Amino acid sequence: MSCEPTPSVHVSQLFSLKGKVALISGGTRGIGEACAIALGEAGASVCLIQRNTSNTSTRDALRLLGVKAEIVPCDLANLDEVRTVFDRALEMMGGEIHVLVNCGGIQRRHPAVDFPEKEWDEVIDVNLKSVWLLCQAAGKHMVPLRRGKIINFASLLTFQGGLTVPAYAAAKGAVGQLTKALSNEWSKENVQVNAIAPGYIATDMNERLLADPTRLRQISERIPAGRWGAPADFAGPTVFLASEASQYVSGEVLVVDGGWMGR
């Protein structure tokens, strides 16, 4: 068995997700919201993994695009809920999921000598173990069907250690290696597994950095593009990795960072 060849169609069709179903976590705000909307704009039906159904803004925006959009409740910190969410989404979306996007995550900041064990466990469970469980469930669905796309959200801290974020760095480093490990097994089954590593993005996860004038200046001066990233910068990369345009791309960690890693 091997990966199916890239279709010989007009290039615009390579990026179409019409008829596809995408499952995404973290889609209520920031990068995840931009990715969810982009998937819908490309034609996909979208199922949003959310802690609850109180926030319907992304779902409603997707429905305005004319695509099917649903919410499947799941707290990523509750691993029992995570273990069932893929199957619940599958039933909700008519028995098919073609794309999984793991974008949900949390951040905790403390000096390493003071980092609470409870918060370490929370970060690892949400940012790594939930990703693993969702990938495994997706693989069980996609591999027998010989089709599928999995996109994990990594980080610059997949490559670098960061400051006062040891749990986050550990989790995101592991996400990069998990992405490669799954690609090694599933590429020949026509399931492409890749990751996106955001650089410094102006979202609420980085609000403490944005509010620190010294760190803001230090970081901004080091970004070759001359600005922090925005959620909209992830629409194109996500659609690319979710579509047939990336048919022969697997095991990659695509860095979207304004040139930070290149420097």
From TrEMBL:
Which protein, by its recorded name, is this? NADP-binding protein
SUPFAM superfamilies named among the record's database cross-references: NAD(P)-binding Rossmann-fold domains (SSF51735)
List the GO molecular function terms. oxidoreductase activity, acting on the CH-OH group of donors, NAD or NADP as acceptor
SMART domains reported in the protein's UniProt record:
PKS_KR
Alphabetized InterPro entries for the sequence: KR_dom, NAD(P)-bd_dom_sf, Sc_DH/Rdtase_CS, SDR_fam
Q: Name one Pfam family in it.
A: adh_short_C2
Alphabetically ordered keywords of this record? NADP, Oxidoreductase
Describe the location of the Ketoreductase domain by residue ranges: 20-189
Q: Give the protein family.
A: Belongs to the short-chain dehydrogenases/reductases (SDR) family.
